[in-house]
Amino acid sequence: AAYAAYAAYVVVCDGFQPAPTRHRRVHSHDVARRYAPGIVGTGYLIKHIGPYAASGLGFVVFAICAVILAISQQLWNFILGMVFNGIAWNICFTSGTVLLTACYEKKDALRVQGINDLVIFGVAGAGSLASGYVYTAIGWDGLVYVVCGLMGLAGVFLAGSYRAASRRAARRTG
Q1: Helices 51-71 and 109-173, axial angle in degrees (round to 10)
Q2: Is the pLDDT of residue 129 over 70?
Q3: Which band of pLDDT confidence, cut at 50, 70 and 90, is reported for residue 24?
Q4: Are 1 and 95 in contact, with CB atoms under 8 Å apart?
Q5: Cβ contacts of residue 104 below 8 Å, gap of 6+?
Q6: What whole-number distance in Å separates Cα of residue 76 and Cα of residue 123?
Q7: What is the rounded distance in angstroms from the CA atom of residue 114 to the CA atom of residue 174?
Q8: Measured between alpha carbons, how far is 1 from 26 in angstroms, rounded to an integer?
């Protein structure tokens, strides 16, 4: 979830750069868009519906973001789309981090989290590079649809991960 979140967020934000300059001021609120949901209630959401469901919800919010951004290139569409982009990033990144903590022994925590950080920022870098290529090759709408495809693929991996975790839990209790 965290990998998909960073990739989708970076693809939309970096693909956003070639947009008309009057819309670039939307980026000045980047930190608020990404971190305010965590202050307001991402932890509460994950606690009550679980990290798998929260990740799925984040993927849906990314898809809503993509639809909003595909509708028009008007200023309000960009503002609203970027707000949804930040909310989705926060939900997915936080729930992905929670899921990661269940995947290792305490003695391996530093190594696993270090590798995770390396992979996340590698994925973010690849997403940043890809966004320019995708924007040049197929335009803004194509870039937005790539985010939808990325969320669909991440949803498939999330469902597989949930299914595997459910089977492991059933074997331990059953």
Answers
A1: 110
A2: yes
A3: low
A4: yes
A5: 112
A6: 29
A7: 34
A8: 25
Cα–Cα distances (Å) from 62 to 2, 55, 110, in that order, read 13, 11, 30
pLDDT at res. 76: 81
Residue type, position 4, single letter: A
Please, what's the b/e burial string for 129-140 (b: 16 or more CB within 10 A of its CB; e: otherwise)?
A: ebbeebbeeeeb
Residue 140 in tokens: 């803004």
Q: How far is CA 99 from CA 11, 20, 26, 96, in A?
A: 23, 38, 31, 5
Tens-place pLDDT, residues 36-76: 777 788 889 999 999 999 999 998 998 898 888 888 877 78
DSSP 104: S
Residue range 93-114, pLDDT digits in tens: 899 889 888 888 889 989 999 9
Distance CA 4, CA 18 (A): 22
